[in-house]
Specification:
By secondary structure, the chain is mainly beta. It has one domain (2-69): Sandwich (Immunoglobulin-like), CATH 2.60.40. It is built from no helices and eight strands. The radius of gyration is 11 Å and the shape is globular.
Length: 71
Amino acid sequence: MALTLTNIRADPVTVRFMAGGDTHDINLGPGESSEEACDKGCLLTLADGTEQTFLPEDHVLINRDGFALAE
């Protein structure tokens, strides 16, 4: 399954993605989205240290305050 990330901020954002043995940075411009393989859960971390664990079926919105789930 894939986790979807969408940047709803007005500025670019970099998110560190960790799932299993995979760790990489995802760079998203305003309004951009990315799908990432996430089998059992994954940890997302913003540059300010905000981090949260999400499930594969989640659609994560990145906003000024951190992370939110799309409804």
